[in-house]
Amino acid sequence: MQGTGNRGSLSCLLLPVPCNLFPAVINVEIVTVGNEVLLGLVQDTNSNYLCRVVRGMGGRVRHIAIVRDEIDCIVDEIRASLDRRADLVFTCGGLGPTADDLTLAGVAEAAGVALELNPSAKDFVEKRYAELSRLGHVSSAAMTEARLKMARLPAGARMIENPVGAAPAMAIESGGTRIVALPGVPAELKAIVEGPLQTLLSEMFGRGSYRERELAVECNDESQLAPALRRTAELHPEVYIKSLASRFGPDVVFRILISASAASEQEADLMIDRASEDLIRELRRTGIQEA
Known about the structure:
This protein is an alpha+beta fold. It has helices spanning 35-38, 45-56, 71-83, 103-111, 119-134, 145-149, 186-193, 198-205, 222-235, 265-285; strands at 11-14, 27-33, 60-67, 88-92, 115-117, 152-154, 158-160, 169-174, 177-182, 209-218, 240-245, 253-262, 289-290.
């Protein structure tokens, strides 16, 4: 399932990240799987989040697709990414225990390998349901066929722990392309990306950790924000700053996204702290206060 997230912006002020901060560009593609997205029942906030992560780490998202919960659709889209020689492909959704969760089978078929019971994944799922049962969140810890389904990964795949949910993520390489299958629940996807997946992302992008923070300010005119944002960006060229507005009006509260990549979470957080302090100072000089 995907998250509802925020509605799309009508206005966006982008401050560029100096390209000399990053190594050679990594080309990334995203495949979101879910009928609920195509039916308009939920918004694909996961792709938006992954785009920010990739951009923050110096990569480039060059293609996003949304496909139905049908094996042929999933296979065709992943094979197309492989044919385009993408460096990294994220899939979002379709890792759960129900019959229409077909992403792992689709990845396996596209990569030309079989699905098999992964011992690490089985151990993870088993422990997670034992924990859920102990907390009273599920009625039984028994490893049913539906639960075992989440532990059947493409042959040769590496299981990636899910810090929040019961369905593990996984990574596999096919023809020089890394495929990372992530759950569709936004909180689970984000926890994996900012946690267990950091090792792989650091290996590929040469940066260790991506972090982001939002600042809300009382301002009804984005043009008033621009000078403060620009001055802060000049002081902190390694930090990405973006303001978003959903509409015009006297009661508008602007959201400002501040993000950074560094060798560690602590270093990235420190970079954001310093940029946030300077930004708040610059905004106050122009009479703009935090919301």
